[in-house]
């Protein structure tokens, strides 16, 4: 394995892990409500921009992060309660437009209150490069991978072992039946949006030291997360994670070996190709474990 | 029913038309502006608008221009060239502005040039591309140094350090594309050779792949990055992460403290061409620019409590060129103002000393650019 | 005769013609004409997109891609390298887009719901990336200037003349769409949106109709792209971009799906709103997002169908 390949792999896995977390957020909401939330990217933005702004107020990093995640979760729940829930019987496109409206609104608010400039979060544990078999990474890459792993493990434990998690799964399979057995489906939907906002915010915060952040950062990352979720098969958590990693690695390899000009087109070429042969994505219709 | 619908529709449209038509104020001098205040180029448009607003207010507080108040009519293009076209039509046709200072990005500027040319309205652009003033258009001027000059200045410095082979990495936005084209065109003049040519998207968050490719290219002496926004900061961080041991040059697109803040200590030793504005107090007292740039810097930073950038400086220069020309013309007659801008001589601005002519609608030469190096988190003049 | 006038079909068309004729009386300058032209361009594209989304039930989040291909083909083919006549360039571009749409429609239209949205979105973004990247041909992000339009020796000059060109195109497309909707094809289309399975059982070749509408609306978008490129005299990659696609679909949904006049209303609102909100400066995005959300939450069927229902109920 050449050093270059290893380097491309590292950068692909790091960015892919971010896509995976965002994709997982899409999957959770889709699972619970069959809604694609185009405002998902804004949770990334809220997470990272709020951390920046709380830090600037003089709060210590852990407090700032906790508050930022809490802010994103509350925003997610408000979004569900006041924008998505009232329109639950509307067409697919209508709900898409509502969430697009919400994302414009959130971006607008961020721009008014947090300004338009770019910000960098300080790295969690320094910037000293680490050498691995000739390739170099910074400690933040490890943070991204570590946090992603922990979150994925926690989420899968949550859905398989806890009552609320099982209730969400039940609701996604059959909302009416879930109601009959006494599940408060409204609460479940609220919870799903909150959880998905949490994932987005965490993703935004852990990559911000590497990628910088601004009020517009959610557009591109949100879009890539959507691609990851569809690639894996909507509603499949495993699929979203695999999809995210595939995208990240493919982008890095394309930039390294093919053409950096067309790197951004690669995810979309892949998704078209996959959908041509598997119209429900990689893990979509096979009834594998749904997260 | 049909009649009612038709009447209602016509009325609604008429009301809308009235709403979006400018109110004709009687006796003011109207300066129109369209800037990318939001969107990916907002770090250009934001300080530009702040600068224009601050100085228009100041002019008015000091009694206005030719005894009249100055009115700034501004629209946000969000960096979209199509929007810019509509807004410029609105400025010219509906707001009846006397002249236009604006156009943060080259794309927006180039898209509106046919409009201002046919409407015969003086237009001072704040965008970089050399194509804006080369060939010269009768009604179009610009204040920032061109991307070609930036490339030339950088290559000049590289040559003087004895470098031979250059690796280029550039953004795929308008600024990066245009800079890349100019760099490839002029590089031969300096006896340098381009051995790698990588690009990244304006919203990319990781450039290690491209830089790894450059790192493994044999014989590279120096790396040049043409881009703006957060991209160059990420390039700089990734360059540090990969432990690349080659001198890194950035373009004038990063000429704001924000870049140093974003890139952190990875930016130590990075060189770039920039206007004297960044040095301000560090300039020698003999410099004619010193009083101007120190004054602008202090005023801007006091009012907005944020670091000055050369982009706001371009807007300052644009506005001052316009104001001086209107004073000189003694009226807002468009042809007279245009002629007055064209005959600008020895205007000392934040970008340099401007000497315009019928053949040169920029009026700056290479000496207006300084090569700076980032040391201890601040700009220092090289040589 | 009067009954016919009162049918929404003819009545609406006449109202539109009337509005188009009356409007210029209120225009004070060419900027107003320019806004009206932008409305007409967007409305025409939105109408064709509405056939696809509203009647055939197929989401497209990539329509700006087709619009962009049309615009850029015209810009390049009529430019100095090729020197084609604008009309040939326009038709060839539209045909090429039609072929492209036909080729991708096979696999794409098999997809459903969000998968279809994703595929069309991807297609549009790929087109936009190609346009931005191949700068030797397209001028890259800075764009390309376009030759003026000449058809049979006639060349529209200035906004006032172009206004009539685009209004004629708009009216023609409304007339075409209304006829299409009332034809057997139209009934088949509505069946496809209603229930694809039911339509198939009833013997409607749903694939054929979906493909037909997809190709047609792509070609329409391309034609409008060409025309608008000639009108502007300048094209930039923005017109092919993701945001433009979203804008077009928003017009359709906001105005009202499965309503020709809804698409026009959507185009009017989305074109005028940004011009009216400019005074809000920093708050512009907030208000715009809020209006979009509230409208869709309270009128999920879109403005025109919701208001029409209310209106009829009030009359009854």
TrEMBL record, chain A:
One of its GO terms (cellular component) is plasma membrane. Its main location: membrane. Pfam families: BPD_transp_2. GO terms for biological process: amino acid transport. The chain crosses the membrane at residues 6-30, 63-80, 92-114, 142-159, 188-211, 265-284. Keywords: Amino-acid transport, Cell membrane, Membrane, Transmembrane, Transmembrane helix, Transport. InterPro entries: ABC_transp_permease, BCAA_transport_permease. It is found in: Cell inner membrane. It is a multi-pass membrane protein. Belongs to the binding-protein-dependent transport system permease family. LivHM subfamily. This is Branched-chain amino acid ABC transporter permease. It comes from Oceanospirillum multiglobuliferum. The lineage of its organism: Bacteria, Pseudomonadati, Pseudomonadota, Gammaproteobacteria, Oceanospirillales.
UniProtKB/TrEMBL annotation, chain B:
GO terms for biological process: amino acid transport. It comes from the Bacteria. Residues 28-362 form the Leucine-binding protein domain. InterPro entries: BCAA_transport (IPR051010), Leu-bd (IPR028081), Leu_Ile_Val-bd (IPR000709), Peripla_BP_I (IPR028082). Residues 1-25 form the signal peptide. The keyword Transmembrane does not apply. Pfam families: Peripla_BP_6. Keywords: Amino-acid transport, Signal, Transport. The keyword Transport applies. Belongs to the leucine-binding protein family. This is ABC transporter substrate-binding protein. It comes from Oceanospirillum multiglobuliferum.
Automatic annotation (TrEMBL), chain C:
It is a multi-pass membrane protein. Keywords: Cell membrane, Membrane, Transmembrane, Transmembrane helix. The chain crosses the membrane at residues 12-29, 35-53, 83-103, 115-133, 162-181, 212-231, 251-273, 285-304. It holds the Pfam family BPD_transp_2. It is found in: Cell inner membrane. The keyword Translocase does not apply. GO terms for cellular component: plasma membrane. Its main location: membrane. The keyword Transmembrane helix applies. GO terms for molecular function: branched-chain amino acid transmembrane transporter activity. PANTHER family: BRANCHED AMINO ACID TRANSPORT SYSTEM PERMEASE, HIGH-AFFINITY BRANCHED-CHAIN AMINO ACID TRANSPORT SYSTEM PERMEASE. This is Branched-chain amino acid ABC transporter permease. It comes from Oceanospirillum multiglobuliferum. The lineage of its organism: Bacteria, Pseudomonadati, Pseudomonadota, Gammaproteobacteria, Oceanospirillales.
């Amino acid at each position: 394995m050449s050093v270059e390949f290893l380097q491309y792999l590292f950068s692909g896995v790091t960015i892919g892990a971010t896509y995976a977390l965002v994709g997982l957020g899409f999957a959770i909401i889709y699972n619970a409500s069959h809604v694609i939330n185009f405002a998902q990217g804004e949770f990334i933005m809220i997470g990272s921009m709020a951390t920046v702004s709380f830090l600037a107020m003089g709060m210590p990093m852990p407090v700032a992060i906790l508050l930022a995640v809490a802010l994103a979760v509350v925003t997610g729940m408000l979004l569900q309660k006041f924008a998505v829930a009232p329109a639950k019987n509307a067409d697919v496109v209508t709900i898409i437009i509502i969430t697009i409206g919400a994302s414009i609104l959130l971006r607008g608010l961020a721009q008014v209150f947090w300004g338009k400039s770019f910000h960098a979060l300080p790295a969690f544990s320094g910037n000293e490069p680490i050498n691995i078999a000739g390739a170099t990474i910074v400690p933040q890459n490890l943070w991204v991978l570590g946090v992603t792993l922990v979150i994925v493990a926690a989420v899968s434990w949550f859905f398989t072992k806890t009552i609320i998690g099982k209730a969400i799964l039940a609701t996604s399979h059959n909302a009416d039946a879930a109601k009959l057995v006494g599940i408060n489906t409204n609460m479940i939907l609220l919870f799903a949006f909150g959880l998905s906002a949490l994932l987005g915010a965490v993703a935004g915060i852990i990559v911000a030291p590497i990628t910088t952040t601004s009020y517009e950062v959610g557009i591109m990352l949100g879009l890539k997360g959507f691609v990851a979720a569809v690639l894996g098969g909507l509603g499949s958590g495993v699929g979203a994670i695999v999809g995210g990693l595939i995208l990240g690695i493919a982008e890095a390899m394309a930039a390294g070996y093919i053409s950096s000009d067309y790197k951004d087109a690669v995810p979309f070429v892949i998704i078209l190709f996959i959908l041509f042969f598997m119209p429900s994505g990689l893990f979509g219709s096979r009834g594998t474990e749904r997260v | 029913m049909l009649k009612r619908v038709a009447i209602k529709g016509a009325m609604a449209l008429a009301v809308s038309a009235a709403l979006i038509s400018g109110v004709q104020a009687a006796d003011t001098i109207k300066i129109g502006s369209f800037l990318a205040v939001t969107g990916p180029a907002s770090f250009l448009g934001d300080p530009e608008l702040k600068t224009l607003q601050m100085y228009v207010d100041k002019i008015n507080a000091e009694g206005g221009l030719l005894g009249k108040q100055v009115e700034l009519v501004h629209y946000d293009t969000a960096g979209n060239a199509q929007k810019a076209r509509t807004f410029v039509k609105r400025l010219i046709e509906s707001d009846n502005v006397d002249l236009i200072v604006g156009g943060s990005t080259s794309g927006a500027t180039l898209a509106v040039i046919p409009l201002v040319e046919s409407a015969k309205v003086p237009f001072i652009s704040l965008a970089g591309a050399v194509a804006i003033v080369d060939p010269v258009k009768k009604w179009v001027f610009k204040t920032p140094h061109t991307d070609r000059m930036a490339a030339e200045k950088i290559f000049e410095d590289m040559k003087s350090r004895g470098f031979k082979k250059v690796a280029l990495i550039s953004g795929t936005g308008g600024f990066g594309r245009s800079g890349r084209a100019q760099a490839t065109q002029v590089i031969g003049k300096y006896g340098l050779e381009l051995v790698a040519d990588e690009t990244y998207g304006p919203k990319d968050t990781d450039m290690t792949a491209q830089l790894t490719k450059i790192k493994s290219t044999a014989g590279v002496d120096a790396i040049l990055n043409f881009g703006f926004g957060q991209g160059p900061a990420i390039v700089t961080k990734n360059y540090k992460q990969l432990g690349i041991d080659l001198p890194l040059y950035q373009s004038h697109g990063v000429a704001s403290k924000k870049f140093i803040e974003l890139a952190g200590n990875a930016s130590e030793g990075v060189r770039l061409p920039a206007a004297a504005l960044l040095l301000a107090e560090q300039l020698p007292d003999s410099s004619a620019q010193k009083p101007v740039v120190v004054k602008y810097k202090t005023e801007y930073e006091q009012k907005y409590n944020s670091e000055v950038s050369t982009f706001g400086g371009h807007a300052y220069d644009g506005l001052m060129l316009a104001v001086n020309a209107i004073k000189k013309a003694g009226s807002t007659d468009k042809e007279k103002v245009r002629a007055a801008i064209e005959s600008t001589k020895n205007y000392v601005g934040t970008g340099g000393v401007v000497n315009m002519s019928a053949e040169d609608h920029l009026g700056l030469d290479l000496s207006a650019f300084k090569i700076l190096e980032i040391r201890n988190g601040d700009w220092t003049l090289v040589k | 005769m009067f009954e016919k006038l009162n049918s929404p079909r003819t009545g609406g068309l006449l109202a539109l013609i009337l509005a188009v004729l009356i409007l210029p009386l209120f225009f004070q300058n060419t900027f107003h004409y320019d806004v009206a032209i932008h409305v007409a361009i967007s409305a025409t594209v939105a109408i064709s997109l509405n056939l696809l989304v509203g009647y055939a039930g197929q989401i497209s989040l990539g329509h700006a891609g087709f619009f962009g291909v049309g615009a850029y083909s015209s810009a390049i083919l009529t430019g100095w390298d090729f020197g084609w006549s604008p009309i040939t360039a326009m038709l060839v571009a539209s045909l090429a887009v039609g072929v492209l749409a036909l080729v991708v429609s096979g696999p794409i239209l098999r997809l459903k719901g969000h998968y279809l949205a994703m595929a069309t979105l991807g297609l549009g973004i790929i087109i936009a990336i190609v346009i931005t990247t191949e700068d030797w041909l397209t001028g890259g992000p800075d764009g390309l200037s376009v030759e003026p339009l000449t058809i049979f020796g006639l060349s529209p000059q200035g906004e006032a003349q172009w206004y009539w060109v685009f209004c004629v195109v708009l009216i023609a497309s409304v007339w075409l769409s209304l006829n299409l909707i009332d034809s057997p094809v139209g009934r088949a289309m509505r069946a496809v949106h209603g229930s694809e399975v039911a339509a198939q059982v009833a013997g409607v070749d749903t694939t054929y109709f979906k493909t037909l509408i997809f190709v047609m609306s792509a070609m329409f978008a391309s034609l409008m792209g060409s025309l608008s490129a000639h009108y502007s005299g300048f094209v930039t990659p923005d017109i092919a971009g993701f945001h433009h696609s979203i804008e077009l679909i928003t017009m359709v949904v906001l105005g009202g799906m499965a309503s020709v006049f809804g698409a026009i209303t959507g185009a009017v609102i989305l074109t005028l709103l940004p011009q009216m909100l400019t005074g809000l400066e920093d708050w512009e995005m907030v208000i715009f997002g809020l209006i979009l959300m509230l409208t869709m939450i309270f009128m999920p069927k879109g403005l025109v169908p919701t208001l029409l229902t209310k209106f009829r109920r009030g009359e009854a």
